[in-house]
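User: ABC transporter, Planotetraspora phitsanulokensis:
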Amino acid sequence: MLVGISMAILWWLAQALVPAALGRAIDALAGSRTGDLVEWSAAILGLGAIQAVTGVLRHRFAVLTWLGAAYRTVQVTARQATRLGATLPKRLSTGEVVSVGNSDIAHIGNAMDILLRGTGALVAIGTVTVILLTTSPPLGLIVLIGVPLMAAAVGPLLRPLHKRQHAQRDLQGDLATRASDIVGGLRVLRGIGGEALFSARYREESQGVRRAGVRVASVESALEGAQILLPGVLIAAVTWLGAQFALDGRISPGQLVAFYAYAAFLIAPLRTVTEAADKLTKGHVAARRVCRILSLEPEIRDGTGTLPAEAVSDVLLDGESGVAVRPGRLTALVAAVPEEAAAITDRLGRYTPGEVTLGGVSLAELPVGEVRRHILVADNAARLFTGRLRDELDVRGTATDDDVRLALHAACADDIVEALPDGLDARVAEAGREFSGGQQQRLRLARALTADPDVLVLVEPTSAVDAHTEARIADRLGKARAGRTTLVCTTSPLVLDRADLVVFVEDGKVRAEGSHRELLDAEPGYSAVVTRGEG
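Assistant: Predicted structure for ABC transporter:
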């Protein structure tokens, strides 16, 4: 940045001194002073060479600064998103985060870029003012007074521009979120005939963004007009007064040419200063949004404790609800309200604060990374990413081909891989969109089983598959996790009937424990949830 500003200052100064050298050369020519003419012509040539060199370097540093500002913003935002983890979607919409890469980085980069030229332009305006004051105080005073007046005239346009740009940025984020939701749920929308309704909603919000853009453009057009009109008025005043002074003999012909050249030259730095005000305003709006993301703190913070090796094979207990996940057993969790089960699994996986212990050690005392290594929560919000299918299933890169195939078999996903031309080497598209909802669910289950964590928490792992497939998964899941600690949140009788222990939660507390059939006979609330009120 500092080197680029230095190059920009030299570039502008080389241009600012050309009219003075040109005026001296004209006076030398008028006075038939050949030696002076050659010297000033050489000075003009030298100033041109300095412009060429510093102009190239300034532009290179400007591009470097733009790229550095833009892509460092992407890097720190991505790191923050990773750091926030499950906190991010609770605090910000998808569109608001995506807009950082779509538009904010350009405005931030432009703001850094214009600082180079803008700083040099201010120095050039100051230099020209000094030259004019030294040559002709009245003309110098016109420039000295006129430039601040121009800045003051542009100032009232910046506040409404800032406000309208902020409003447009909010609407763009909302629209991006709407588009993401529509694309993500397109299959469902087609299935229920909701395309027309959501298309109308998107069109309405899109028109809102368009109207906001027009409001921004109306202020920007006034700003663009001011960039032409105000310097033009100043140039006209300087040129007219300089011509009067030349006619009166108060300045030489060369000085008149120099004054006219300065008046014309001032258009560029004055326009740059106005452009800087516009781009810095947009950059400020974008930077505020980025800083909002960067200022968020994760709900869960790292602890400093350690987990004893023997604690890994002990009971995982949620103190708030009383749910105890016994080691080496397949435990099923049934909640009267689905949100209660989700809250419990979030606490067990330490995605939200809670009084949870593993082998008597509080998870709050442990680093988040260590909790993740031992406890894996797999729900239906998990995504499949672009890449080779095998890499998608073995995210840790430690499983053998046999491990992956055993996990696929347990999740009844063998047929999905067999149907792919390249098998496990097939490429997965964005969000696994080439797979149906049931296929995606089975692949997510296979991925969780391949990871083979010490404690696996599955949230409704069979909700999108047919009854026959669900029965096979229920049979194979217990065998695949034999000797390992597993908790399945489900209301499926097929899965519940094969669990070692079923825990029934009502009003956020454990109401009963036992086998599926025992609870059907002894607990009316459990029976109502599992049979959905039938019988």
